[in-house]
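INTERNAL AUDIT FORM
Audit reference: QA-55
Scope: verify that the stored structure record matches its stored sequence.
Auditor: D.O.
Record contents follow.
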Amino acid sequence: MPLLGQVPIDVTLREGGDSGTPVVLSHPDSPAAVALRGVARRLGRRARGLAGRSLGLTPTGR
């Protein structure tokens, strides 16, 4: 899988992870939020191409 993006180290990202508030909601203009939205956008484009296709995965039974 190609690299979808890089999320910069950002204090607001860590704080959001600690509090359970997504940085894209609490600080939507922060560098981390912008990067995460870009990753989600690229991943969404790729996922539509995978809809209905077998991924060759099987449950491990754990």
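Auditor finding: record pair retrieved intact. The radius of gyration is 15 Å.
Action required: none
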